[in-house]
Amino acid sequence: HDQVFIKTAMGYVNENLTNGAFSVEDLCTLLNLSQPQCYRKIKAITGYNISEFIRNTRLKKAAALLKNSDYKISEIAYKTGFNDPNYFTKSFVKLYGISPKEFAKSAQAAI
Predict the structure, then answer these.
(1) What CA–CA distance (Å, rounded) separates 76 from 70?
(2) In whole angstroms, how far apart are CA 86 and each of 27, 62, 77?
(3) How confident is the model at residue 107 (pLDDT cuts 50, 70, 90)?
(4) Prediction pTM value
(5) Do residues 56 and 45 lie in contact, with contact meaning Cβ atoms separated by under 8 Å?
(6) What whole-number distance in Å separates Cα of residue 91 and Cα of residue 55?
(7) Reduced to 3 states, what is the DSSP secondary structure of residue 78?
(8) Which of 58, 78, 85, 98 could staple 74 via S-S, CB 3.0–4.6 A?
């Protein structure tokens, strides 16, 4: 049941990927939950708060684009809802431990 909920939540984030204004409130509304309910449920399942969950879902999509496309890093940042490429890079490093540029290089080297 929890996996279905998280898949649904990720689906909503992915549907709104290019929308940099997609918010915690938007996700809670789409899931038909109050913000406190949504926060508790997402935190209990993933260990992340709602904004971290949204950001990490976007970063997972960005990682896939870095592996499988020829887009520039700034283009990928915008395509995944980050309005600031520097913030995108900082968030990416925090989640993956390497820069998007290094990630793309290592993904290309693995092919």
Answers:
(1) 10
(2) 25, 14, 9
(3) confident
(4) 0.92
(5) no
(6) 8
(7) helix
(8) 85
Write the burial class of residue 95 (CB in 10 Å: 0-12 exposed, 13-18 middle, 19+ buried).
middle
Amino acid at site 25 = E
Q: What is the pLDDT of residues 17-30, one digit of tens each?
A: 999 999 999 999 99
Q: Give phi and psi for 49, each to the nearest 5.
A: -75, 175
Q: CA 42, CA 22: separation in Å to the nearest integer?
A: 17
Q: What are phi and psi of 27, to 5 degrees?
A: -65, -45
Rounded Cα distance, 106 and 25, in Å? 36
Give 36-80 pLDDT, tens digit per residue: 999 999 999 999 999 999 999 999 999 999 999 889 999 999 999
Chain length of the chain: 111
